[in-house]
Please model this.
Amino acid sequence: MMYLNIHALEIADGLKDVLIHADFTIESILEYGSNEIASIIGIDPYVAEIIFNAAKKAVKPNVSTQKNHYHNNNTKSFELIHKPRT
Model:
């Protein structure tokens, strides 16, 4: 898994500051889970779930980019295979 910075999370800056101060990384957020995060930094479980979901989103591959890459590769292959003879 590629290392991502807490600043990559789509959450409020104040939450990012709390996570950084508590030495969290995106990887550790995913490892601990929302209940453990809530317990460690003393926040509401609902807020910890938002943080956890933002971390999952940050590491999730961009599906639309993968689809475009797949489509472009298949189109090129199709053109090479079915190229009309002259």
